[in-house]
Amino acid sequence: MAAAGRGGSAEVTGISDARKEGASPRSRGEGNDIAIVGAGIVGICAAAYLTEAGYRVSVFDRTGVCEETSSGNASAFAFSDVLPLAHKGMMKNLPRWLADPLGPLAIPPSHLPKLLPWLWRFWRAGSSRHYEASLAAQAGMMKLAEPEWMGLLDRSGTRSMLREDGSLELYESEAEFRASLPGWAARDRFDIPYRHVDGDEISALQPGLSGQFIKGTFVPGWKTSIDPKLLGKAIWAYAEKKGATFLKGEVALVMSARERIAIQLKEGRTVMADRVLIAAGAWSHRLARQLGDHIPLETERGYNTTLPVGAFDVKRQLIFGGHGFVITPLSTGLRIGGAVELGGLKLPPNYARSKAMLEKARRFLPGLKTEGGREWMGYRPSLPDSLPVIGRSRSSANVYYAFGHGHLGKTQAAGTARLIRDLVSGRAPALDISPFSPQRF
Ligand SMILES: Cc1cc2nc3c(=O)[nH]c(=O)nc-3n(C[C@H](O)[C@H](O)[C@H](O)COP(=O)(O)OP(=O)(O)OC[C@H]3O[C@@H](n4cnc5c(N)ncnc54)[C@H](O)[C@@H]3O)c2cc1C
């Protein structure tokens, strides 16, 4: 241990010293220390995979394990959700959505100037060529993500937290249904099963639903977990049992220091590691910038309300695409929410958005008990082409990135962890990762 660091008096430790005494189950060779910045679902899954492979893993987070965006999401394993967000059909909806301040998409005027470069890239990502490339990459990632999650659930003993009851997407008009058909046809190309339903079949899939939904699409392979936070904590318990350690602290700086990486915490301490994985969700680009990677990460803020258990007997996840929200039955309650607010990391939450979706849910599920709900906002980490960043930093081969999964971070966490493990251990990645390159922008 030596005294040094930017503040002059700051402490520098090797990561082994920083870990709690006795936390490592077995001694491992030099070069095996990996620090992960971020204990969201992506960081936690990476910790599980890397400890399984024999690496000595320490996870840094300023709050706790799975306490931020990964704690309150809609809990879907949306393996069939392969369509990039930027596409022509979506662009047609933009004026209507933006006209409603509490609708599916909002841009707070104060954030607009900062957002313009991202919006420009988003618009370009909707061109046929870019869209097709993102679609193929996303579908490839999903084909990997599903078996990786199922394997991780089994290995960690958490399979019982999985719900395999499919999803039901609902449409209020023939026009809305017809507008969804190209998206379903695109899924045909990747052999994703689904079935369009109407009338009695809708009522059987979800009794008590308002009659205003004339058509639906049932996706049998859609899965959810009983609660995203509980699942995240359970995966972490598995990683911890395998030897991963949690260190609470905000990482202020990540930089190369000879053959190793220095991680400076806000409190002043500096920790050295052989390798670093940045999995800090919507805040990751700030650390990547320090390493010379300028990644256009924005946040799509999303909102929900979780009602107490018993608010309504919802049989499976219900998706109201035209209204930009979903209803998910969890073991901890009924979660109603979604929406996109391109509002950055600093503006205060606008919970009128949660309330607006709850009010719609009350109309869609007559009899829904709307009392006693808990409101929440989370920060989806989003790239303009709807693909995550998975790969190495430009300046240091020992720094890896895994962030930017947007609406799909839970769904793709285990697949991402597999790819990171492949990269770290020098194996050929399980799929072509060039579409996820940090240097693609
Ligand atoms: C309303 C809503 C619904 C959603 N529904 C779904 C869904 O159904 N299915 C799905 O797959 N995805 C869903 N998502 C998206 C999903 O929640 C995210 O993609 C995912 O949680 C991102 O995980 P992460 O680990 O990358 O980031 P996070 O969960 O945000 O974790 C990042 C962690 O990094 C920490 N951190 C950041 N900076 C630092 C620093 N400098 N030092 C130390 N720690 C730091 C933070 O404290 C945080 O704990 C939804 C999102 C929202 C908002």
Number of strands: 23
Q: In which range does the helix fraction lie?
A: 25-40%
Q: What is the terminal separation in angstroms?
A: 40 Å
Strand content: 25-35%
Instruction: Report the C-alpha radius of gyration, rounded.
Output: 22 Å
Biggest β-sheet description: 9 strands, mixed
> What's the total helix number?
11
Main structural class: alpha/beta
What integer is the average pLDDT? 92
Ligands bound, unique = flavin-adenine dinucleotide
Poorly predicted sequence stretches spanning 5 or more consecutive residues: 1-9, 20-29
Instruction: Give the CA-based shape.
Output: globular
Question: Helices and strands in order, then pairings?
Answer:
Blueprint: E1 2-3, E2 11-14, H1 15-18, E3 33-37, H2 41-52, E4 56-61, E5 76-77, H3 88-99, E6 105-106, H4 112-125, H5 128-155, E7 162-163, E8 167-171, H6 174-188, E9 195-198, H7 199-205, E10 215-219, E11 223-225, H8 228-241, E12 245-248, E13 251-257, E14 260-265, E15 270-273, E16 275-278, H9 284-290, E17 298-307, E18 317-320, E19 325-330, E20 333-341, H10 352-364, E21 374-382, E22 389-392, E23 399-403, H11 409-424
Parallel strand pairs: 2-15, 3-4, 3-16, 4-12, 6-20, 8-18, 16-23
Antiparallel strand pairs: 1-2, 5-11, 7-11, 8-10, 9-10, 13-14, 14-15, 17-20, 17-21, 18-19, 19-20, 22-23
Helix pairs in contact: 2-8, 2-11, 5-11
Briefly say what this structure is:
The protein has 441 residues and is an alpha/beta fold.
Fold and architecture overview:
The protein has 441 residues and is α/β, with parallel strands linked by helices. The chain has helices at residues 15-18, 41-52, 88-99, 112-125, 128-155, 174-188, 199-205, 228-241, 284-290, 352-364, 409-424, and strands at 2-3, 11-14, 33-37, 56-61, 76-77, 105-106, 162-163, 167-171, 195-198, 215-219, 223-225, 245-248, 251-257, 260-265, 270-273, 275-278, 298-307, 317-320, 325-330, 333-341, 374-382, 389-392, 399-403. The strands form 4 sheets. Strands 6, 8, 9, 10, 17, 18, 19, 20 and 21 form a 9-stranded mixed beta sheet that branches. The protein has a 6-stranded mixed beta sheet with strand order 12-4-3-16-23-22, sandwiched between helices. Strands 1-2-15-14-13 form a 5-stranded mixed beta sheet. Strand 3 (33-37), helix 2 (41-52) and strand 4 (56-61) form a beta-alpha-beta unit. Helix 2 runs parallel beside helix 8 (228-241), helix 2 (41-52) packs parallel to helix 11 (409-424) and helix 5 (128-155) packs across helix 11 (409-424). The chain starts with a strand and ends in a 17-residue tail after the last helix. Residues 1-9 and 20-29 have low confidence and may be disordered. The structure holds flavin-adenine dinucleotide.
